[in-house]
Write a structure and sequence with these properties.
Length: 299
């Protein structure tokens, strides 16, 4: 290529200035986008208008010098504690007493004389102590089927064991109920529940056994859950909401449908219309739905 042709294709200073201006504008725009994305990534429930469930697995870092946020609540003028008319909770004396402990005086409260063999005038003030027994006494029941010989044909018949007594040794229904209660109702981890059962009743239960108890209890609620879904679907007014929860180490979504007397929860890996349809209440619901106005509810 000749020098003359090369000089003819070389951009002019005016063209270079225009190109620089375009690149500067593009860089400025990219800087704004990057800053906005960084701000979104750094946002959490503590520094922005986001729900705590949106924080995911990691909890947002605590600021070393957090800003003090003044509450918008105003003083009510009422005294602290329970208000007038509030129904308090207190211990009441029991009519049925398991045992009585008598406390006799050792000496005269006046002169200090010995009261051994002194006249007994009855009992004075009584005070009750309501406490747990020193230990939970296990009940071990041997189920034995009785053998009977028929006088007519000479055949030997054996009694039938009741339902739930199918193995040589098994846990009783109250022990199983305690395990399910601790895990499902009290949200106690399996290992802690097993330790608690051992501490209370000296019964060693494995975490696998506890899981089987929960699965068996859940399987028995199939008909109940379907009836609950139908009652909520036919309710005149029902409240709907969703929130995040960690299930097996992963963030999933719990959708709720509730009235003043009924509540039903369903879990789903994703939230939105798919989870609402899976819950099965909203698709056939024709009453008044109370919710936070989230877009999927409008569908």
């Amino acid at each position: 290529m000749s020098d003359a042709r090369r000089d003819a294709e070389r951009p002019s200073y005016e063209q270079l200035d225009e190109l620089i201006a375009v690149l500067r504008a593009r860089i400025a725009q990219q800087d704004r986008v990057i800053a906005e994305l960084r701000e979104r990534l750094a946002a959490n429930s503590r520094n922005g208008s986001r729900s705590p469930s949106s924080d995911g697995y990691r909890k947002p870092p605590v600021d070393k010098k957090p800003h003090r946020i003044r509450s918008l609540r105003q003083r009510s003028g009422r005294k602290a504690g329970g208000q007038d008319g509030h129904e308090g909770v207190h211990l009441e004396r029991r009519a049925a007493v398991d045992r009585t402990v008598a406390h006799a005086p050792q000496g005269c409260s006046g002169c200090g004389g010995d009261l051994t063999g002194a006249e007994h005038l009855g009992f004075g003030e009584t005070r009750q102590v309501i406490d747990l027994p020193p230990e939970v006494v296990l009940e071990v029941i041997d189920h034995v089927n009785v053998l009977r010989l028929c006088p007519g044909c000479g055949r030997v018949s054996a009694g039938v064991f009741p339902a739930g007594v199918g193995a040589m040794v098994q846990y009783g229904p109250r022990t199983r109920a305690l395990g399910v209660y601790l895990i499902v109702f009290r949200h106690t981890p399996c290992e802690r529940a097993a330790r608690l059962i051992f501490d209370l009743a000296a019964i060693r239960v494995s975490t696998g056994t506890l899981k089987r108890w929960v699965d068996r209890a859940g399987g028995g609620l199939t008909d109940f859950d379907e009836q609950l879904r139908e009652l909520l679907s036919d309710a005149p007014v029902c409240h709907f909401d969703e929130t995040g929860a960690r299930i097996a180490g992963r963030l999933e979504w719990i959708h709720s449908a509730s009235t003043t007397t009924l509540t039903r929860y369903t879990a789903r890996k994703r939230r939105g219309t798919e989870a609402m349809n899976h819950a099965g209440v909203l698709p056939t619901f024709a009453g008044t739905a109370v919710h936070d106005g989230w877009k999927p509810y409008q569908s």
